[in-house]
Each structure stands twice: as structure tokens, then as C-alpha cells.
Amino acid sequence: MTERPRLLPLLGPAGHAGRDAMTCLYRCGNACEHPIPNVSSNPSLGEVVSRRGLLAGTAAAAGGALVLSSAVAAEPAAAAVDPRAMMPLKPGRPAGALTFKPIPPNKLDTLVVPNGYDSAVVMRWGDPVVPGAPGLDVDRLTPARQSKQFGYNNDFVGVLPIGNGGRRALLVVNHEYTNEELMFPGFTSLDAMTVEQIEVAMAAHGLSVVEIERVGDTGQWRRAERGSLPYNRRITALATRFDLTGPAAGSAPLRTAADPRGRTVIGTLNNCSGGVTPWGTVLSGEENFNQYFVGGDGVPEALKPSLARYGVSTTARYPSGSRKWERAQERFDLARHPNEANRFGWIVEVDPFEPLAKPRKHTALGRLKHEGANVIVAGSGHVVAYMGDDERFDYLYKFVSAKRYRSGDRRHNLTLLESGTLYVAKLTGDSPAAEIDGTGKLPSDGAFDGTGQWIKLVSGEQSFVPDMTAAEVLTFTRLAGDAVGATKMDRPEDVQPSLRTGKIYAAMTNNTNRGVGTNPGVDEANPRNNNKHGHIFEITEDGGDHTGTTFTWALPIVCGDPADPSTYFAGFDKTKVSPISCPDNVAFDSAGNLWISTDGNALGSNDGLFATPIEGAGKGHLRQFLTVPLGAETCGPFVTGDDRSVFVAVQHPGEITGASQANPASTWPDGDFAKPAVVVTWRPDGGPAGS
Ligand code: FEO
Ligand code: CA
Ligand code: CA
Ligand code: CA
Fold first, then answer.
1. Which strands, in side-by-side order, build the sheet including 271-276?
2. How many domains does the chain have?
3. Backbone dihedral region of 321: left (phi > 0), alpha (psi from -120 to 50 degrees) or beta?
4. How far is the CA of 42 from the centre of ligand 2 (A)?
5. Which residue's C-alpha comes closest to atom 1 of ligand 1?
6. 46 domain residue, yes or no
7. Is 272 in the pocket of ligand 1 (CB under 6 A)?
8. DSSP per-residue letters across 359-406
9. pLDDT digits over 206-229, tens only?
10. 394 lines ligand 1 (CB under 6 A)
11. Counting CB atoms within 10 angstroms of each CB, which of 25, 31, 204, 379 has the fewest?
12. Nearest to 247, CA basis, from 267, 265, 262
């Protein structure tokens, strides 16, 4: 980028945990103002109380018995692709060493990258996706135009190669939510939005699939312009139809007046992070879906506990942060359509290589506020997906497929996430509880670490939770986790296995309610009270078996200012590491270095992207690779298999209270008003990212 860094003075009032108040309103519907949804006492298995009363009403409301799903037939694709093997390294190119000079924390309204790197926008809000689509014109925002253009607030980024040439790829991106105050000229309030404007917002949610091409022989990529671009596609909250698969598909809680069979859902909501599968599809997590619904006060009493457990207000018709979508589509009014909310909160699988294939919501992976899902093929051939439920005091999960991965058999592999076993994590620290004092001081054994169990919740159509059917466990998974005594975590965000070591890394972004008031106190896995800066959680499956039920865990990084004694960087010299706050998304380069992006930096800097070795002598030597502009969080990230390109999604730039298009808090990336965009960074000299 060549624009000059600008310092803009407009800083809004603080929201929660260092976030701007506008972020709190638009992103999660002021979730932190609402009661913590997990009020369970997590009884042990022997003490489980009957939740039959909680759940019985759901079936009654939809008026029928459980109907089990048959598998959805997926279209065969032309070629099997392992996207994570893309773009082989050039012979002789060294890889792996992280030697870049870290950038300092800053509050600049630009994308800052290390010396020796360049960066460019790949796609921004409103850019044409479907061939022939118009470009952005904020005076002509219509649902039809937006449905062909790049959506708003890009989060997950996947780059899947087309063929083996390393020159073309599919960019697959989530669009989590919208900032109406920054999208629409003259915006005054969500209440004043026209129905057409609401439909624009609905069309700006979802996913984009965009064919991209390498620029020359560099690490830069841009939207491909030549050819028919058959893969380019928008998936929206407005109109795209999804098939439900797995044991809960067709069950009573998923049936509505518009879909009495409970098998087809219109739209996807609040798609946050995700993952790329070895068979060349993308998984996308439906996260804060609760904020799109009103009327929770008007549902039958029996349904209220299961709605409340997912953060849907059951006491107010219009909870704070509600987006008023019921004015465009009445299904968002739960008083009229009480089961509609049950049709969101799933892991979505999109096949970007089959533009006509319906995306699917896989009920076998449970219903949470899914951050994302990342899979690894176990030694046995079973596919294992690791997942986090992003809410204060919620849980970590894994799914093990019933069937085995077959290399090259894409049609078969497309069915792997339709049936399997779902587990939730229960953790035990190995240090005396008295040594976990809430300050972050390491216990006497020198580590926050311990052992864990994967507790089986459901396998195929068999439930292992008393008084819940398999379909109920999958649809009300949080209640199932409560019942078996899962460990309450500090907001589990991205969870991803390293394909190099098999260890799994999860970002616990923060939890300023830990140990505060009557909320749960610290444990060894969540060892700081008022956890403002979060930590990284590492899982090592016993015997390296991803299908097993026992593991060990440790916290290699406890985030914050390295000068703060409560921080820990795997024992590395803290005078040499960058400050980091609120880890959100994780990724790996080909050498196995861990890349971490942040959301909600509570240290006074813009959010950014960091990299650290996670094995060997350099473990914990964390350096800051980039920062994003004012008001933005850093999403993605994605390091290509040849290590030459690092993609990040710059989400909600300029999201600062009081900002508008006419009075922008950020003018990135074009100098006029803020637009979310996906960016690629690379070394112009051709060297690998991180060096
Ligand atoms: Fe959308 Fe969990 O962040
Ligand atoms: Ca310990
Ligand atoms: Ca996230
Ligand atoms: Ca986030």
C-alpha cells in the first residue's frame, strides 16, 4: 500500500472488554450487557436433573415425532483437492524461519506490514463477484445488486487452488454481519431502515466464492477477470437455500410453517470463522444468530429455557441489539415462528467447486454459537473436527466421523460430516487448586496444564445424555454440555489442529466476567480473573489419536503486555516478544508456525496478526506481523501452502461510535469511507512469509 498513514482523532466510547460500543451493538447485539447464557451448575453425571420439561415443549410445539434424516447426496466434483498442499515451494527456497522485524503497536488508519513486505486489497465490500455485477454505488444499494457483490464484514478466509499450476484459486470468505451506520448514506437508526435496506443487509451477509489469480510470479493475488468465472457465487442470508443433514434434520424442533419437513433453511447467519477440508470444501460457523430474532417473550414457556441458553431474550420483545429483520421477513419473530432460531447455529459446508450444489447445515456437529470448525484426518481415516462455542463460560467440542476418509473419492468424502460422534471437553488441572490464584502467577510446577476427557454426547442416533434424544442433544448442544459437566472456558474462538504435529490450538479470546461477582472463578485452564487479554490453549491427544477420549493440555501463551507479570510466552524471554491481546483466529504456515489474529485489543493498539514458533527453542517468540486500520479486527488469516502469500480479512474498519459514511472514523482502503476488505501481503523479493 502506498497511502500515507493517517492518525484520526475520532475515538468512540468504550464498550465491553475494550471494544468500541458500536462493535458491541452491531457484532453481537450487546451480548455482554445480557445475562451470561450459561447459568448451569454443571452437575456431575450422577447428578443430572431431568431436562425433559425443557425440551418436551419443543417437540410439542412442532407437533410431531422425531423423524431421522437420510444422508444428502452430494454432487461429484471434477477433482479431489487437498487445498492445504497447494502451490508447492520453489526448489531451494528456505521455509520456516520467522525472522521478520516485528512492527510496533500503533493507532494508524492503514494496514501496516513489516519492512520488506507489500500488501494489496484483493476484494472489498461491493466489488463484483458474479460476472457482470455492478461495482459499489452507495446511492444505489439494492438487494439484487448486493446479492451479486462482495458482502460486508469479511471474517473467515480460505484459499483453495484450482488445479496444480499455482496460478488460480478460489477465495472463499464469510460475511459475518453488517454495519448499517457505515453502509447507508444518511443512516439514522435501525428502526428507520426501509425494508429494501434491510434486504440489502441480509444480502450482505453470508459467503462469497471468488476466483482469484496470481499477479505475475509474485505472492500477490487479485480477482480473476478473464474467462467465464463459473465458480463465482454469493451465498446470502436473504435467499440461499440450505439442506439440513444428520440426525436432527427433520426433527420437531427444526420444523416451521414454511418448512414443515424441517429439512430446508433459507439463509445463513453471522458466519464467523471456518475451515478448509481435505476434500476441498469450506466449513463455516454460524455464530451470534440470537441477535436476529425478536419475540422471545412471546414463545410458549416450555421453549424459553432452550432459547435463553443461546442468548435469545425471552423477557423482551425487542432485545437491545436486535436488527429488525422481522420487518422484512416475519420468520425472525419467534412469537410467530418459535422454531426458526433452531435452524441457525450450525456448521455449514459449502462446496465451492460445485456452484449449483446446495450448501448444507450439518446437525451432527451440534448447535452452538459456532466460531468455526477445522478438520484433520486421524490415523484410522476418520475425520475429526475441532470446534469452539464462542461465549463466555462455554465449551470446546470435537466431532469424529462415522465413516473414513477415502483419498480421491470426493463424492464419499462429502458425506463424512453427516454422521458421527460429538464430544465435549472436560478439563482437570494438575496443580493444586490453591496455586491457581487468579493473578496469572504460574503454579509451582511451572505450567498451566493438565489432563482432559472428551465426554461423548451423542453417536449417530444414540444419545449419551440422560433425558435427551440424539436430535435434542444436537439441537440443544449447550444443554447437553451443561448436563455432563463440561469445562466453562474463556470464550473459545478458533480451534485448529497443526497438520505438522497433530497438536490442536484454540484461542480463548477473553472473559472479563471470570471470577467477578457470582460468576465462575478461575481454574487451571482459565487461570486469570477478569481475563482481559485471553490465552492460547494447546491440546495433545493421548497417543496422537484424534479419535480418542483422553488428552493433555497446556497454555503455551497467556496474552497481554509482556511487561505484565500475568503473561506467559512459553518461557521465552518476554523482553523480545510483541504485546498481544484477545486472540481470535489461528492458522499455520507450512513450517508449522502458529499465526494468531486478534479482535478487541485491550492494550490501546489496533488489532493485528502475530506469528510464533510453537515447537523448539523459539517457541513463544511471538512477533507482530501486521496491524489493521482504525476500528477494525483482524480475521482470516490464511497462509498459502507455498508460504508466499498471507491473506487477512480486515473486518469492520471504522466501527467507532459516532462514525458514519459522511463522518468516517476510517477512510481505509480507498481514502473515502471505510470498507471491509480481504488483503494479501507478500514479499516482493519472492521470499517466504515470516522471513
Ligand atoms: Fe465472530 Fe467468535 O468471533
Ligand atoms: Ca500445572
Ligand atoms: Ca472470531
Ligand atoms: Ca471475532
1. 264-266, 241-245, 360-362, 347-350, 282-286, 271-276
2. 1
3. left
4. 23
5. 272
6. yes
7. yes
8. PEEEGGG--S-B---EEEE-TTSEEEEEEEB-SEEE-EEEEEEEEEP-
9. 999 999 999 999 999 999 998 899
10. no
11. 379
12. 262
Distance CA 370, CA 205 (A): 16
- 198 Cα to the center of ligand 4, angstroms: 23
Give the three-class secondary structure for 601.
Answer: coil
Residue length, the chain? 691
Taking the chain, what is the end-to-end CA distance rounded to the nearest angstrom? Answer: 20
Q: Is the CB of 493 under 6 A from ligand 1?
A: yes
DSSP category for residue 218 = S
445 CA from centroid of ligand 2 (Å): 5
C-alpha cell, 233 = 457465487
Question: Cα angle at 601 between 596 and 607, to 5 degrees?
Answer: 60
Q: Please report whether residue 30 resides in a domain.
A: yes
The amino acid occupying position 480 is A
Beta strands in 112-228 (DSSP E): 118-124, 154-161, 168-175, 206-214, 221-223
Question: What atom in ligand 1 is closest to the CA of residue 273?
Answer: 1
Give the other-Cβ count within 10 Å of 135's Cβ: 10
Q: Which residues contact 507 (CB under 8 A, 6 or more apart)?
A: 388, 492, 493, 494, 495, 534, 536, 537, 583, 584, 585, 586, 596
Segment 479-509, tens digit of pLDDT: 999 999 999 999 999 999 999 999 999 999 9
The set of residues, in sequence order, having a beta carbon less than 8 Å from that of 147 and lying 6+ positions away, is 203, 234, 236, 238, 239
Binding site membership of 176 for ligand 1 (Cβ less than 6 Å): yes
Assigned domain for 423 exists: yes
Give the Å distance between the CA of 514 and the centre of ligand 2.
19
Instruction: Express each pLDDT in 323-364 by its tens digit.
Output: 999 999 999 999 999 999 999 999 999 999 999 999 999 999
Q: How far is CA 551 from the centre of its chain?
A: 24
Beta bridge partners of 639: 646
Would you state the pLDDT for residue 7? 36
Euclidean distance between CA atoms 120 and 2, whole angstroms = 9
- CA 40, 41, 44, 46: dihedral to nearest 10 degrees? -80
d(CA 527, CA 440): 6
Helix (H) or strand (E) holding 21: helix 21-28
Res 374 pLDDT > 60: yes
Range of the domain at 232: 21-56+96-236+371-682
Please, are residues 472 and 253 in contact by the beta-carbon 8 Å criterion?
yes
Alpha carbons 28 and 44: distance in angstroms, whole number: 31
Residue 361 is assigned to a structural domain of this protein: no
Distance CA 52, CA 195 (A): 40
pTM of the predicted structure, to 2 decimals: 0.92
